[in-house]
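tokens incoming
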């Protein structure tokens, strides 16, 4: 009887959690679609499409291209202006003009949402759906999206941190120690979610926690007979916070002559790097108070120079799983994310062995972009499903962080070195953007991909 009661109680708790998750998703859908209940149906569809594309992490120039393509198919003239925090859609109605403006938060990659939104845009562009059908399809798709629970997101941070420890040149011992550090950083981020005041300090707090726990973790590991590098652990712990993707997206938008959005996103990425660097600095100060040595700068071999072995294979698997969770990919898409990660690793290795350091990121990004465009034409899915996981291994976030740490140093030598390092990070981001542009020239992407 006791066991039966326990099982029933657990079942009720699980059902309650699932119910709360469904209610949260329903409320979020209501907040998005509530503003789409008045006005012409075409305007409402275009506004919701732009909002969901933005929420999925689509660059501004791609949002404008996809929404404009759908508007043209619907027989209306629309002008779309997208920024990381603002979207404006103007529709030409004869001699008059209707304008829809709405505030948005900077989007982050969400692969499942990107796929569903792309599918609806694809059907509208092909003439299979009208505006009313497209709006209904968007709502149904949004309400049925798979959203990873908080514990899964936290585990995703842990797995990605452990993988990063190896891909940054660390050992298996570094991976073992980085796993709980990444978990604690992810847990701190989940605690900050939900309230604006806490979310604004999430990056600072995560960097502080990573620095403090990296030192504690290495001390504990040493007592257990493990040999871990505190600098590698600290950097692996904050790697999920670094805005490498934002830097690359900003350069892509600037390359596409979307100067307003690219400049805003670039400054947002720089601000994030400064906040993270300050969190690390405060963490190091706290470590000194307790008499422990702070994490020293880690200058080990990079991913491009890393030899392939069992540990690297395990790191790629763990990193792919972490990316799949962090990017909100469907569980059945994990193998696609893993294949994309392996593709990125192969592209990085081949490019380094074939070209010099300046051209290697360009060649690797071009190879990945071509593969993504071919997949998009073949499977009628967004290019990002291949490009995002693969390019995650090329992102310059850790380099930018090192440069920012040196820039805020009081040592003039470190400041000059930091300026050089940060400039190098921007050049890598620009090289990746250039490689993707070359890929689009070689294999033109689908208009709404």
């Amino acid at each position: 009887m006791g066991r039966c009661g326990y099982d029933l109680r657990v079942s009720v708790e699980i059902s309650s959690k699932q119910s709360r998750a469904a209610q949260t998703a329903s409320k979020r859908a209501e907040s998005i679609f509530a503003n789409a209940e008045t006005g012409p149906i075409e305007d409402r569809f275009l506004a919701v499409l732009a909002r969901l594309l933005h929420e999925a992490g689509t660059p501004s120039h791609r949002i404008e291209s996809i929404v404009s393509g759908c508007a043209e198919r619907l027989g209306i003239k629309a002008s779309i202006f997208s920024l990381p925090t603002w979207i404006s859609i103007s529709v030409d109605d004869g001699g008059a003009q209707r304008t829809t403006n709405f505030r948005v938060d900077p989007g982050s990659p969400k692969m499942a949402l990107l796929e569903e939104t792309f599918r609806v845009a694809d059907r509208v562009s092909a003439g299979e759906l009208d505006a009313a059908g497209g709006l209904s399809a968007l709502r149904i798709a949004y309400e049925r999206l798979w959203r990873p629970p908080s514990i899964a997101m936290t585990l995703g941070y842990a797995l990605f941190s452990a993988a990063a420890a190896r891909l940054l040149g660390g050992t298996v011992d570094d991976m073992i120690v980085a796993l709980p550090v990444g978990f604690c950083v992810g847990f701190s981020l989940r605690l900050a979610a939900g309230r604006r005041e806490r979310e604004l300090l999430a990056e600072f707090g995560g960097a502080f926690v990573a620095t403090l726990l990296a030192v504690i973790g290495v001390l504990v590991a040493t007592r257990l007979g493990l040999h871990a590098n505190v600098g590698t652990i600290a950097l692996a712990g904050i790697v999920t916070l670094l805005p490498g993707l934002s830097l690359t997206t900003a350069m892509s938008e600037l390359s596409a002559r979307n100067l307003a959005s690219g400049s805003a996103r670039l400054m947002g990425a720089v601000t994030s790097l400064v906040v993270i660097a300050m969190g690390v600095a405060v963490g190091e100060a706290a470590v000194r108070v307790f008499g422990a040595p702070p994490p020293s700068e880690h200058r080990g071999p990079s991913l491009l120079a890393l030899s392939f072995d069992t540990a690297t294979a395990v790191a790629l698997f763990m990193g792919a799983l972490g990316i799949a969770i962090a990017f909100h990919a469907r569980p059945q898409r994990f193998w696609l994310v893993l294949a994309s990660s392996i593709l990125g690793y192969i592209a990085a290795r081949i490019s380094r062995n074939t070209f010099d350091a300046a051209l290697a990121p360009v060649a690797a990004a071009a190879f990945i972009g071509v593969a993504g465009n071919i997949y998009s034409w073949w499977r009628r899915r967004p290019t990002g499903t291949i490009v995002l996981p693969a390019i995650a291994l090329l992102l310059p976030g850790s380099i930018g962080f090192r440069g920012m740490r040196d820039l805020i140093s009081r040592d003039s030598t470190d400041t000059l070195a930091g300026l050089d390092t940060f400039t190098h990070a921007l050049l890598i981001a620009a090289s990746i953007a250039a490689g993707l542009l070359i890929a689009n020239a070689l294999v033109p992407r689908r208009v709404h991909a």
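note: The radius of gyration is 23 Å.
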